[in-house]
Amino acid sequence: MKLLLFTLPFAFALLLASSFASGAVVEHTFNIGNFTVSRLCNNQVITAVNGSLPGPTINVEEGDTLVVHAINNSPYNITLHWHGIFQLLSAWADGPESVTQCPIRPGGRYTYRFNITGQEGEWWNANVVDVENNATETGLGPVDSDAYTINGLPGDSYSCSQNQTYKLKVKQGKTYLLRIINAALNEQHFFMIANHTFTVVAMDASYTEPYNTQVIVLAPGQTVDALITTNQTLASYYMVFTPYHSNPNVTINGNITRGLVVYDNATTASSPVMPNLPAQTDTSTAHKFYSNITGLAHGPHWVPVPRHVDEHMFVTFGIGLDHCNETGPNACGGLNFRLSANMNNESFVLPKGLSMMEAFYRNVSGVYTRDFPSNPPFVFNYTDPALETNGTDIAFAPKSTKVKSLKFNSTVQVVLQNTAILAVENHPIHLHSFNFHVLAQGFGNYDAKVDESKFNLDNPQIRNTVAVPVGGWAVIRFQANNPGMWLVHCHLETHLPWGLAMAFEVENGPQPWVLPPPPADLPQC
Ligand SMILES: *[C@@H]1O[C@H](CO)[C@@H](O)[C@H](O)[C@H]1NC(C)=O
Ligand SMILES: *[C@@H]1O[C@H](CO)[C@@H](O)[C@H](O)[C@H]1NC(C)=O
Ligand SMILES: *[C@@H]1O[C@H](CO)[C@@H](O)[C@H](O)[C@H]1NC(C)=O
Ligand SMILES: *[C@@H]1O[C@H](CO)[C@@H](O)[C@H](O)[C@H]1NC(C)=O
Ligand SMILES: *[C@@H]1O[C@H](CO)[C@@H](O)[C@H](O)[C@H]1NC(C)=O
Ligand SMILES: *[C@@H]1O[C@H](CO)[C@@H](O)[C@H](O)[C@H]1NC(C)=O
Ligand SMILES: *[C@@H]1O[C@H](CO)[C@@H](O)[C@H](O)[C@H]1NC(C)=O
Ligand SMILES: *[C@@H]1O[C@H](CO)[C@@H](O)[C@H](O)[C@H]1NC(C)=O
Ligand SMILES: *[C@@H]1O[C@H](CO)[C@@H](O)[C@H](O)[C@H]1NC(C)=O
Ligand SMILES: *[C@@H]1O[C@H](CO)[C@@H](O)[C@H](O)[C@H]1NC(C)=O
Ligand SMILES: *[C@@H]1O[C@H](CO)[C@@H](O)[C@H](O)[C@H]1NC(C)=O
Ligand SMILES: *[C@@H]1O[C@H](CO)[C@@H](O)[C@H](O)[C@H]1NC(C)=O
Ligand SMILES: [Cu+2]
């Protein structure tokens, strides 16, 4: 069986090769810097690892220690964040800027260290840093990307891209394992291969009960491992990523990207077969995929659902507004507000100076406060469609850097409730450091009396990013067994700087469950 990866610009893949512990130290150097590539009739300078797009693949085995020396030769502040199959050897390697570390400055370096326990992209005909800076200036979100890519290639539906189409060459009668990573920044995507059925075997690097489906859907940050059997006639078949657009009122780039599955000895005469794609607004297809798959109870790395809950939280989240305090010709696109976002009516801002985890470690006050509310400050009909137009009076949430403090090893249950203020949307909520069980999901307002009876406590999905149904809710549960400062945020890239985030401060436990001192080379602000 072959393991194949679909990844992105500025991401790299970790492959877990076998389940036999080898205990080796695997060492890599990442030179991060400018790299010029030709796409969509343009030459564009991008920031890449080791001058390659997609980024490098690292092969490790269970029990290995992975050491990555990151050297920042780019003109930007950089941090690296890792999803998936490893436990942190050092909590100081998690990555998010201002949360667990200050950025690696241009010319700087930092070594990330992990113990190994048991990644499509997006393209702009512009410098993505300029795109983000413009979005911050106008307060209205980034311009749409120009293309989506598969392993860095836009594919033949775009101009100048006929020979920039990803091709997967296969032999008839084999089984292939595909690891599909949604590395797009702002859109969820459906994925299909014409005339082939997927058998999903893992999501977010946790095993699932094998699940047969024609269509896969992934939010940014999520991964799916799926098998395909090449049992079709000798031909070429399109693989297609098409956006899942949970709220048509929110504009996105509606383009698709295509690659090819090419059978050995396929006749080149006939054109490749296209799959029948779902509509980009097909929430029922997306929801079926997101909610119907179960975890592989009692399989490798299975963790049973903790039955006793120590902390119950109910967290509303969604889009809001902030006052425009800037002046200048481009400030807030000429409007007197800018877009914002919040969780429980607190719009998260990253601190300046000391990172939050260093403040926690050194017991420095003034960087964050411990009063993130466990419940919304006021109760309203969260998903009332009328809030999309008349919700502006409750759309302004204060800017703050608030955390929820958790006792070591406490079990936490969080109801994640989307709000309809300005726009309902499916937001992928990512929790750093912990996998969680997804106990239930639904549309409308969560109602404990009715919805608790739907909890799957036997074989729920284990994930690190849950795409909460548009105008709906999801209930997650996890055990806070890793001391440190852990960000929770929407994985739609634009929503994080708007404030759709909070953090958990997990207190130290008994030895050895104590946050170790920061490494000597931890970047300083
Ligand atoms: C890298 O690219 C950026 C953006 O295009 C440019 O400003 C910078 O001068 C380049 N740096 C080097 C070392 O080439
Ligand atoms: C990681 O592995 C090293 C070497 O085996 C060991 O010393 C260390 O305790 C491990 N750390 C964790 C968090 O498992
Ligand atoms: C950023 O905004 C400036 C001024 O409005 C514009 O000239 C430039 O093309 C924009 N850049 C991008 C990448 O959108
Ligand atoms: C791709 O096509 C362009 C013209 O469209 C050509 O200049 C270029 O050499 C081709 N590249 C490869 C690798 O075939
Ligand atoms: C693909 O599937 C369609 C519909 O089932 C079928 O008509 C077509 O012949 C298949 N194409 C190939 C090349 O197998
Ligand atoms: C091809 O394999 C799939 C499983 O991946 C199976 O569902 C399907 O029936 C097989 N089709 C043929 C023609 O053997
Ligand atoms: C889109 O906007 C229209 C008009 O404001 C509204 O009626 C509709 O409910 C919105 N759709 C969604 C999915 O929010
Ligand atoms: C598709 O991409 C092209 C650029 O390649 C762009 O002009 C067009 O607006 C995009 N279409 C949509 C629906 O976003
Ligand atoms: C492809 O064709 C060659 C020559 O006819 C043959 O030897 C080979 O077995 C074929 N491969 C497959 C996968 O059908
Ligand atoms: C998955 O869908 C099937 C068919 O609709 C249903 O019987 C089953 O209960 C669902 N399973 C879960 C875990 O939602
Ligand atoms: C902008 O001004 C408003 C009202 O004066 C104030 O409440 C808010 O905190 C300011 N926002 C920022 C980001 O400074
Ligand atoms: C890089 O980070 C440092 C320290 O946080 C900050 O002072 C500086 O403004 C940042 N530079 C850029 C280009 O963001
Ligand atoms: Cu979001």
UniProtKB/TrEMBL annotation:
Cellular location(s): Secreted, Extracellular space, Apoplast
Q: Which residues form the signal peptide?
A: 1-23
The organism's superkingdom is given as: Eukaryota
Enzyme group, top EC level?
oxidoreductase
A Gene Ontology annotation in the biological process aspect, one of them, is: lignin catabolic process
Q: Which family does it belong to?
A: Belongs to the multicopper oxidase family.
Q: What protein is this chain from? A: laccase
Report the source organism: Sphenostylis stenocarpa
